[in-house]
Amino acid sequence: MSREERMARAGDYVLGLMDEKERTRAERDMEVDAEFRDCVIHLAERFHAFDKDVAPAEVPGDMWQTVAARIADMPQMTAADIARERLDLTTLQAPDPSRKGILQLKRPYAHQFAGWRGGLIAACLIGALGVGYLSGQAMGPAPEPVVVVVLADEDNAPGAFVEAYGNDAVRIVPLVDFEVPQGKTLEVWTLYDRDVGPVSLGTFGRSTEITLQGPDQPMPQPQQLYEITLEDAPGSPVGRPTGPILVKGLAVRPPR
Amino acid sequence: MSADNQDDASTLLLERVAAGDRTALAELFKLEAGRLIAVARRIVRRADLAEEAVQDAFVTIWRKATMFDPMRGSGRAWMTRMVRNRALNMVRDGQRMEFVEPQMLAELGDAGSDADLAYEALPAASDLRRCLDQLEPVRRRSIVLAYVGGFTHGEIAGRLKAPIGTVKAWIRRGVIALQECMS
């Protein structure tokens, strides 16, 4: 996103000119794009000048009771619930939460593994994984990933499979042939702490299986966000994703 | 209580709400509901709809309090955003169409003049006021109508009798210039 594009988009977000889908997408982008996030926060705080000193309207006497009754039995969303909702809303499909696939993944990917199409994808996964985690368990001492991630594109189609290990390494198995134009490279990111922001795990130039050794980082957690972006070679110059997001996904802990 | 102290108080209360404390939400309601109803009313126009928007927003604030991150702005601004989003969804769903009945117009007042008043009420020393003042009047008015009144590009085009593409360009250029000025 160019600087002007970023400011224009932050403007549309803060002014309330986005539809719900655009808004959810912008909020998701704020999680991974620190510059866009800073731009939005800065602008929103300035515009709050319109709201913070408004003369209060009369509050109906029973209004709090109504709110209290509505939340009486209502559980609060966890950070993981919110991340999942955000991912669901940024895709167009409404997945069936009751279905689970071969990896026991819950939404939003489970429906991808259902039916004949799912069979093909599952076969593709098993084939691509080789001695990875599915067969690795049977083969004994191969190190097991702490979390696994199916990264999907905008249309929710699986595009890559990632295994993250406890030693900061990640194994990437592309499931589609990402087009990497001359002068570009694929960069893998994760977000383990919003305050730290996105962390680059490394780059790879071709759509083939590869293991990358990331920088020192905490043990990967379920619900941790992973994504692959297309960056100018040799990689993002600012240490933050700048190019388009090709695929993204949230980590799950594989069943043992 | 000054606005800044209230910012701090609301931020601390929201962190308690995130930890599951319903009494903290009740305190926030007491502090903020009146102001938030007034903010929603500038968008939805009708008092009952504004109250409904704020009621819904407080339910959302309860459910999503863990989303609030004090590193990313004040609690008051975050709550205001929840209310604005709810109010905007209500008018986008077409609920504002009901108001066109002539007998209601006087009671509802005019969103455009509300926007003017909100602009006039901005402290002259604030960055927002100083930088809005530097914009061409049509750009400034488009931006204020969008934020304060919750109007869409199309509605602003109708009010200002300009093509929608022109309004989009005014707002785009305007918000970029505004951010350059305020940075």
Task: Identify the quaternary structure here.
Answer: heterodimer
**What is the CATH homology-level superfamily of the largest domain in chain B?**
RNA polymerase sigma factor, region 2, helix turn helix motif
Give the number of helices of chain A. Answer: 7
Q: How many E-type strands of chain A?
A: 8
CATH topology description of the largest domain in chain B: Rna Polymerase Sigma Factor, Chain: A
Helices and strands of chain B, in N-to-C order? HHHHHHHHHH
Compressed to H and E, one letter per element, the order of chain A equals: HHHHHHHEEEEEEEE
Number of strands of chain B: 0
Structural class of chain A: alpha+beta
Low-pLDDT windows of residues of chain A: 90-142
Number of domains of chain B: 2
> Major sheet of chain A, described briefly?
4 strands, antiparallel
Shape field of chain A: globular
CATH architecture of the largest domain in chain A: Sandwich
Radius of gyration of chain B: 17 Å
Structural topology:
The complex is a heterodimer of chains A (256) and B (183).
Chain A: H1 3-15, H2 20-32, H3 34-47, H4 63-71, H5 79-90, H6 115-129, H7 133-136, E1 147-152, E2 158-164, E3 169-174, E4 184-191, E5 199-204, E6 210-213, E7 225-232, E8 245-250
Antiparallel strand pairs in A: 1-2, 2-3, 3-6, 4-5, 4-7, 7-8
Chain B: H1 3-18, H2 22-44, H3 47-63, H4 75-92, H5 102-108, H6 111-121, H7 127-133, H8 137-149, H9 153-160, H10 164-182
Helix pairs in contact in B: 1-2, 2-3, 2-4, 3-4, 6-8, 7-10, 8-10, 9-10
Question: What can you tell me about this protein's structure?
Answer:
The complex is a heterodimer of chains A (256) and B (183). Chain A has 256 residues and is of the alpha+beta class. Chain A folds into two domains: 3-71; 79-250, Immunoglobulin-like. Chain A is built from seven helices and eight strands, in the order H-H-H-H-H-H-H-E-E-E-E-E-E-E-E. Chain A has helices at 3-15, 20-32, 34-47, 63-71, 79-90, 115-129, 133-136, and strands at residues 147-152, 158-164, 169-174, 184-191, 199-204, 210-213, 225-232, 245-250. In chain A, a hairpin with a 4-residue loop joins strand 2 and strand 3 (169-174). In chain A, helix 1 (3-15) crosses helix 3 (34-47), helix 2 (20-32) packs across helix 3 (34-47) and helix 2 packs across helix 5 (79-90). The model of chain A is unreliable at 90-142 (pLDDT under 50). Chain B is an all-alpha fold and 183 residues long. Chain B has two domains: 3-96, RNA polymerase sigma factor, region 2, helix turn helix motif (Rna Polymerase Sigma Factor, Chain: A), CATH 1.10.1740.10; 110-182, Winged helix-like DNA-binding domain superfamily/Winged helix DNA-binding domain (Arc Repressor Mutant, subunit A), CATH 1.10.10.10. Chain B is globular. The two termini of chain B are 29 Å apart. The model of chain B has no long low-confidence stretch (mean pLDDT 87). The chains are: A alpha+beta (256), B mainly alpha (183). Chains A and B meet through helix 1, helix 3 and helix 4 of A and helix 1, helix 2, helix 3, helix 4 and helix 7 of B.
